[in-house]
User: What shape does this take?
Amino acid sequence: MSLPRYAEYRDSGVAWLGEVPAHWQVKRLRFVAELNPSKSEVTSLDRQTEVSFLPMDAISDDGSIRLDETRTLAQVENGYTYFRDGDVVIAKITPCFENGKGAVVRGLLEGVGFGTTELIVVRPKPQVTTSDYLGWLFTSPTFRKDAEGAMYGAGGQKRVPDSFVRDYLDAVPPLEEQSAIAAFLDRETGKIDALIAEQEKLLTLLAEKRQATISHAVTRGLNPNVPIKDSGVPWLGEVPSHWLIVRIKHAVRSIEQGWSPQCEGYPAETPDEWGVLKVGCVNGGVFTSSENKRLPGELEPIAQYALKQGDLLISRANTRELVGGAAVVTEDHPKLLLCDKLYRLRMDAALCVPEFLAAFLSIGGARSQIELRASGASSSMLNIGQSVILDMPVTLPSIEEQLQIVDFIRSERQRLEELQHESMCAITLLKERRSALIAAAVTGKIDVRQAA
Assistant: This one.
């Protein structure tokens, strides 16, 4: 979409803003809106009046809010942030601010709401601005970037100061023009959001296709006309009649877990440095050698834990979704050591190709068995014993057929990953286009009055 510029511009006097439409007025936000209005406005309400309550997780990064929580006024009038219908709320704490949490609040019970103290509330002065326009202003990348630069505090406790919002300099168009800009952005970003949603849906379908491809290949093979038999395992179902069904332990020469000394907080960076693997090195079914921590120089490495090509690594401790994740080491790493949160399996080369077993362990049925038998006091860190893996049944075609299946899976995975990459690039470009459009509209770089 090609949009015209305004006919006449002038210097705003603000370095980052540059030129603005000649008829726009440069003002600090405190002159167009009120910040954090007083709770005295609700003193006339009965203390048992039910009002809307917004915890931080009820405010999304797309401008929507969830209004399923209510509390009595007596429960929230002290210690929470007050707002009412038509106010604009902005999350001020990291990472919620950086993630874009904020909204124009509407539909509140009794028109009144309270929420987390980590909000800045902005109420437009109706003779000067509108909540819809302010909502878009606070969404713009120019405002977000400046606000991030003004944050104070350390680590996860950094906040945007109220004074930054109050003193923020912006070029304010006439009210009618603000409405046109808001209507234009509502419509155009809606179109872009719909395209993003389609790409995200495609990513989901590609992930499902990848999983279905692997599952079919390792349980039914590549020949659709081969005779089949009941595997005798409910979650496996029917398999090719010439395939073996054995427990994994019968195809394994050895299984061990490694060593986890106190390491540095950064990975080994040169070939001369020793590193100890982190459990995340097998996430996604692909071995990532950079997921390691440097072994301190004063510690003696245990060379027997060095990685060799063909080692099958399985995470024995992780979240429910990641525990039991498996990947194969693709080359020797003589100075990279196995950690104790990983199992290393070395397979009987006459029975099983490690890449085939890694693929098998990723299918839905195998994952359900692993997750069912995982244990631990914390849902964020579950464990599986060796028996969870070793006692699991596995389908085993001939080595030649396993190699064919592994090659097929590798080829299909690459094809699907290329499609995923294209879709992710499209999403990135659409998001950039969305941000650029908002920035251009609220700073007057484009004239959207006719388009709106």
Remarks:
- The two ends are 13 Å apart (CA to CA).
- The mean pLDDT is 94.
- The domain at 25-172 is CATH 3.90.220.20 (Adenine-n6-DNA-methyltransferase TaqI; Chain A, domain 2).
- The chain is about 30% helix and 20% strand.
